[in-house]
Amino acid sequence: MRNKILIVLGILLVFGAAAGIYANSIYQTAMKQKTSGHSAAAETAAANGNVAGISSVNSFYGQEHYYVISGTAEDGTEVYAWVKDESEPEVIVKEKASGISKENAQSIIQQYNPKRITGIQLGMEKNIPLWEVKYIDEHDRYTYDYIDFTTGDIIKHSAIK
């Protein structure tokens, strides 16, 4: 009886280890897709946008895919660069000081009484640099706003029940 229990435990241990390895493989693949293209976008921003120091690269998926890079220009000015994900990438560079901050974007959506903000990131839509603010509103709807980076105007407000 004792040998049967040990065999069953051994088999369960082997299956558990295999499942863990498989789950880790799926996770690694997903994370690689999330950061895929970031190095190339950073190189493009450096070569075509004069972004000398790069502190972060993020992906934005709107109507089109953009990489958003935070860094410094060659003169030390803090900048954001938007690199369109295409074969001949376009680079748009703006000084951080020329637009509203992440904190300003968050305060602008307070008029909708958000219960919980779930994310704020830079993006681009129709060649307009923007902040995308995602939150749960007072009616428990998943909501996102696009706020013009330069003017602070809300250019899109969408709520999904």
UniProtKB/TrEMBL annotation:
What domain of life does the UniProt record list for this protein's source? Answer: Bacteria
Q: What residue ranges are annotated as transmembrane?
A: none
Taxonomic lineage is: Bacteria, Bacillati, Bacillota, Bacilli, Bacillales
Q: Do you know which InterPro entries this protein is assigned to?
A: Cystatin_sf, PepSY, TseB-like_dom
Q: Which Gene3D superfamilies match?
A: 3.10.450.40
Domain PepSY residues, every copy: 100-156
Q: Which residues form a coiled coil?
A: none
The molecule here is called Peptidase
